[in-house]
Structures are given as structure tokens and as C-alpha cells.
Fold this sequence. Notes:
By secondary structure, the chain is mainly α. It has one domain: 3-Layer(aba) Sandwich (Rossmann fold), CATH 3.40.50.1010. The chain contains seven helices and five strands; from the N terminus they run E-H-H-E-H-H-E-H-H-E-H-E. A three-stranded parallel sheet has the order 1-4-5. A two-stranded parallel sheet has the order 2-3. Helix 5 crosses helix 6 (92-103). It starts with a strand and ends in a 6-residue tail after the last strand. 29% of the residues are buried.
Amino acid sequence: MGIRYLWDTNTAIYYLQQQFPIGAEKFIDDILKFEQPLISAITEIELLCWKTVSESDLIILNQFINDCSVIELEQSIKLRTASIRKATRIKLPDAIIAATAMEYDLTLLTRNVSDFSVVAGLELLNPWEIN
Length: 131
């Protein structure tokens, strides 16, 4: 299949709210032709905490999560998270998301590149920068 992507929470939210610029929207649509969204257990939790406006928002959110593959917090991810946290000042949820991407050799799709840029070896792609 080639490159696979891990969606950061902000990527999922922008997708659900249809707030991507045209280039990013096309890029995401192209990804979804070949693979389902892949998220960390942390992103799943963060999405479930997201304050939705209506009952229909909640239905859409739950449908999105059900359509995703969720990578659970496995021992190897925990160990890599600890290593990342020892080496950087990155927030724990972001460290877990970064560790998840690295353990599965995934590129992290995020608008918050600066939050993750301190993690050596993490592949990042900001959909907002795609034309």
C-alpha cells in the first residue's frame, strides 16, 4: 500500500467540520479512497471529549470513530512514549500520538507541526500546506 497516515485529533476535527482548504480536502479524499482513517487511542478519547453542538454532531462523531482503525495503547507505544517524554517537553497526549505513529512507521497528519517537531524521526505532514 505504501505510505500510511495517522490522523492527529485536529485533522479529524477539521475533516468532520469540513474546514479544510481545497488542496487538503482533495488530499484527504484521495487517502480515503485507499485506506480508512487511522487514529491513536488518545485521538479517540479526545474526540469523545469534544463538545458537540447537537445530537446529529454526536452521531456523526461516533460514525467517524467507528469508521476508523484505532491503535490501542500497546506496551511498545508506552515505552516509546516514555522515551519521547524523557527527551522532550512535549505534552503526554502528543507524545503518545507521536509514539504511535513511529511504532507503526506512519506519517502523522497534523496542523500542529510545531507541537511535534521536537520529536526526532517523526514524519509529519500538515494537510493545510498542500496546494
